[in-house]
Design goal:
Elements (H helix, E strand, L loop, with lengths): L6 E12 L2 E13 L4 E5 L6 H8 L7 E6 L2 E2 L5 H11 E5 L10 H12 L4 H11 L15 H13 L5 E5 L7 H16 L3 E5 L3 H4 L4 E6 L2 E7 L3 H9 L2
Parallel strand pairs: 3-8, 3-9, 6-7, 7-8
Antiparallel strand pairs: 1-2, 1-4, 4-5, 9-10
Helix pairs in contact: 3-4, 3-5, 4-5
Length: 240
């Protein structure tokens, strides 16, 4: 399957019934995502970007259309099979961090490994925290960490299973610009190690870190453009 895109969507629709109305959250989305991309999904509120993220993350099924990951059609898989796809291939980062408040940083990071029945959980969780430069804060609970540190814990939790894909839904929405840049630099580093990064964002400054921007409106892709990511541009400038 090496010649196939990592993700392929073919004419994907997602509809919801609200009273007597049908809402078309996704309306015929077709796209490929290659291994090693950083892609930003953008659009106004109600454009379908969060729905698209849920479908891409195997958190929801399309109403119609096909979704292929590594050549496997995951569109009609059972809940248990979708859970397998998520556990094996995808790490998630959310705007609200979603950390357990009474649980230490290292225990929060261990959670995906617990669900997967993995061995050496504590060792792997500490390694992930060290990757996000929080190894010395592993025993702290979320209320003892800053917002940026909490998001770093969430990033460590996303990478602890060594997923192929990191999906981040407004990952810097609660952070100031300095900390946002630090979080995006982490994503860039993981991408340089071969991970595919899929971001949902409404911020142009965050989308600047991506190599590709997909714009949605009314559940449709209205533009799909490529660019030189911000950090790649800075590296080029630094060598001049």
């Amino acid at each position: 399957m090496a010649d196939m895109p990592l993700i392929k969507l073919v004419n994907v629709h997602k509809t919801y019934r609200m009273g007597d109305s049908i809402v078309r959250a996704l309306d015929g989305v077709t796209m490929d995502i290659e291994r090693g991309e950083i892609i930003a999904i953008m659009g106004p509120s109600g454009s379908g970007k969060s729905t698209l993220m849920n479908v891409l993350g195997a958190l929801d099924r399309p109403t119609k259309g096909q979704y292929y990951m590594d050549g496997e059609d995951v569109s009609g898989l059972t809940d248990n099979e979708l859970a397998r796809i998520r556990n094996e291939h995808i790490g998630f980062v959310f705007q609200s961090f979603n950390l357990l408040k009474r649980t230490s940083a290292i225990e929060n990071v261990e959670l995906p490994l617990v669900y997967a029945g993995a061995r050496n959980r504590r060792e792997r969780a500490l390694e992930a925290l060290e990757q996000v430069k929080l190894g010395d804060r592993s025993t702290h609970k979320p209320n003892e960490l800053s917002g940026g540190e909490q998001q770093r814990v969430a990033v460590a939790r996303a990478i602890v299973t060594d997923p192929d894909i990191i999906m981040a839904d407004e990952p810097t929405g609660n952070l100031d610009s300095k900390v946002s840049n630090e979080i995006m630099e982490l994503f860039w580093e993981f991408n340089q190690d071969g991970k595919t990064i899929i971001l949902v964002t409404h911020e142009d400054t965050i989308a600047a870190f991506a190599g590709r921007i997909v714009q949605l409106l009314d559940g449709k892709i209205i533009s799909d453009t490529r660019q030189t990511p911000k950090l790649a541009q800075e590296l080029v400038e630094a060598t001049k």
